[in-house]
Amino acid sequence: MKKYIIITLINSFLLSTEGKIIFYDQTIIEGTINSIEKESVYITPTGLSFPEQILLENIDSLKINDGTIPIAGGKIILLYQNGQFFKPKTPGTNTKSDPTFDIIEYVIVPNWSLNLYTGIPIIKGVSFKEDFNKSLPVIGLSIGSPYGFFAGDFFMNAIGEIAYYNHWPENRKGELKFGGFCYQLGLSPGFFIGNTSYSITACTGFYRDDVSKLTAGFIAGGSVDIPAGEIILEKYSDVKIYKNIRIKDLKQYIEAIEVRLTARSNLIQKAVDKTGEKGLTYWIGAGLSFGYEF
Q1: Looking at the domain 2-101, which fold is it?
Q2: pLDDT in tens, 236-272
Q3: Which architecture, in CATH terms, is 113-293?
Q4: pTM across the whole model
């Protein structure tokens, strides 16, 4: 028995791969995956030198850094021993498998993400049309956090955003009447159907009116994923991009690319309107969002 344990530990250190375990409460342990067995996972957490045993009953999912997902929804999809992945044994089947081409349901893994949004107003309120009939595309940079609520196919995480917009009346083109940077905080709830996600953005914060005055604002919008990474990997996986490096060799990075069709409504309090009173204006825009998940 002692000899068996020593051999197992040696194999675990020599034949391992990097990944992260996500528990049901969405806490995460990252480190070296030494083995995946029917009832537990052995992982050496980052910063430690000795493996720990994590019982399967406590694990929601396990994601390897190359994109492989051996455990999803508390169920083992692939075992890992002696440096190889393979499917659990079932009567009359071959257990060996290439995990690169396994079709696995998407697993929600809380991460940081950066998203660049650009769009143009397509529907304008009456006061907006009268006062700000010329516009540049709106540009926004949002940061998605791993903090929030994640359960099954539903998620809701906290986000922050900085955006720049510029609207002006045609007969006063030289003067920036309504524009500048805005700063917002909010939530982004959403859900998955298969591998496609549908999400909503709801933020509030400070806009600028008449160049220097801060005014309150609110945005609400919706997005639909375009599976850009999957399309690239499916159609161009064998394309060489540099010497012997093919696109499929960069799978984990390409899968992290996010492209979304996005629509947003903006409700902004104007500092002053034509009568000298404060008022509201709004516009609805459409555009694209480009993101990367860390």
Answers
A1: SH3 type barrels. (2.30.30)
A2: 888 888 888 888 888 878 878 889 999 999 888 766 5
A3: Beta Barrel (2.40)
A4: 0.59
